[in-house]
Design brief:
The protein is an all-alpha fold and 192 residues long. The protein has 8 helices and no strands.
C-alpha cells in the first residue's frame, strides 16, 4: 500500500498542479499523512531546477500550516482522549513532568526533529499535547522545516540527479548533523 502511495506521489510531481499537491502533501504530512513531501519536492526540483527554491518555500509553508493542525490535534484530542486515561491510571504527575520537560527542551526537540526525515507529525502532536507555546512552535517550525527543504532544494538545483541519489542515501545523516550543530550552538549561547 505504501509503495503504491509513493508511486502515486511521483506521478503527481509531473502534473501542472504539482505545486498545489506539494503544499497539500507537506501540510498533511505534518499532521496525519505517512509520506514526506520529499517524494514530490525532489522530482519537481529535478524537473525544474530554477524553481527549486520556490518549491522549497511551498513545502515549508504547507508543512508549517500542517504543523499548526498537528498541534491542534495534540492540544484538543489529547484532552478528550488521553486525559481521561491519564486520570484513570493516576499519571497526572508523570504527564506534568512530560509537559515540564517539553517546555524546557521543546525548542531543541522541534529543531532537531524538524530537520530529520522522522515524521514531523509526532513532534507537532506532542507539542500540542504538552501545550508548548504555540507561536514559538510556529516560528521554530518555519525555521527548521524551511532549513530542511531549502537545503534539499539547493542541493538539487546545484547538483541535479547526483544530488538526488545523495539525498536519498544521506539526507537523514546530513540534517541530523546540522541539527546537532544547531543545538550545540544554542547550548553554547545559553551557557557561555
Amino acid at each position: 500500500m505504501l509503495r503504491r502511495l509513493y508511486d502515486r506521489m511521483l506521478t503527481l510531481s509531473t502534473r501542472p498542479s504539482a505545486p498545489l499537491w506539494l503544499f497539500f502533501v507537506a501540510m498533511a504530512e505534518a499532521s496525519v499523512f505517512p509520506l514526506p513531501p520529499d517524494v514530490l519536492l525532489i522530482p519537481m526540483a529535478l524537473a525544474a531546477p530554477r524553481r527549486a527554491l520556490l518549491f522549497a518555500l511551498i513545502a515549508t509553508l504547507g508543512s508549517v500550516l500542517g504543523g499548526a493542525i498537528g498541534y491542534g490535534i495534540g492540544y484538543a484530542l489529547f484532552a478528550k482522549l488521553a486525559q481521561p486515561i491519564i486520570h484513570f491510571y493516576h499519571y497526572e504527575a508523570a504527564f506534568a513532568a512530560f509537559q515540564h520537560k517539553f517546555a524546557e527542551y521543546g525548542a531543541a526537540i522541534i529543531l532537531i526533529k524538524g530537520l530529520t526525515p522522522i515524521p514531523y507529525k509526532i513532534v507537532t502532536i506532542a507539542a500540542g499535547a504538552a501545550k508548548f507555546n504555540f507561536w514559538a512552535f510556529m516560528g521554530l517550525s518555519f525555521l527548521t522545516r524551511g532549513a530542511r527543504f531549502l537545503l534539499e532544494a539547493i542541493l538539487l538545483r546545484l547538483f541535479g540527479e547526483p544530488a538526488r541519489d545523495f539525498i536519498d542515501k544521506r539526507l537523514g545523516l546530513i540534517t541530523s548533523l546540522f541539527a546537532v550543530l544547531l543545538v550545540a550552538g544554542f547550548l553554547v549561547l545559553k551557557f557561555a
